[in-house]
Amino acid sequence: MAKAWINGNENARQMLSRVLKERPLLHLPHPLHRVPLGVSNVLEIVGPTASAKTEILVQVAVNCILPKNRKGVEYGGLEHPVLFLDLDCRFEIYRLSECLKLKITEAHRLHKTKDSRKRVDFYDEGDLFMECMERFRYTRCYDSFEFLSALKVLNHKLTSTGVHVLMIDNIGAFHSIDRGFSSLPQGNPARKNIGLQTMFEAVVQEMKKLLEPRSMIVLATKTVTNQVKQSYSSRVSGGLKNLYREYMPLTWQSFVTHRILVRPLDEKTKVSYSAEWLLPGLSISDEFVVCDTGILDLLGR
Hints:
It comes from Deinandra increscens subsp. villosa. The protein is α/β, with parallel strands linked by helices. It is built from 10 helices and 13 strands.
């Protein structure tokens, strides 16, 4: 095996083709379209309350569970299963199902317009909807212990085949509770105290076990307070400085490979938003609106 690898001969194009086939990049919809994500990447979507973070997860989920095409109809999906861990406990499955139905209907409408002279035998919308929803797996966690347990269960139940997307809505949902555990007096000095740092060390360890044997990426939202939000706007020549007061443990911070900031453009209406890549740092800022059909590029780029 090793000798065959050493004696192997391939050019750069062949090498890239092989690597991208084994570890494909995922090109996600707006506003995450600027930076493709690869296997084991961890994207943190950070922003204040009501900044469309969960809506972005919904749109990405719809894009993932839709098929690429059926019976000649282009749906433009990735046809990948999605694992959604809801730590905020406020996820609305109705929003996901409505967006999915609208995407299917729109794909059929566009196909009819394109082939108006040809009779089209569409894939039954009900069957397609059920096929897509079967790719969406949802778990609600009410504290860090349930979150950690869910990760352990996933490690045992998931197969190593296929590309998966793991979504975590509000990774910092239990921060205050776990921080409170750290301040409690330790009952047994010989036993390690349960607290924020200890809990996230275990969480990151389980997530690494989940990612290593599988072609999987992680998308996690994180909410910042109004006070922290103001520091995001601090700009200096040549880049951003003092972006925000980070409250997550260093274990999680070092685990994150990509980070994007989203925030409302209008504090009153909260229908239009901006998105800016912090990691990697990009000079481009995208603007978008949220409507019934999903997320639309405000600048039309």
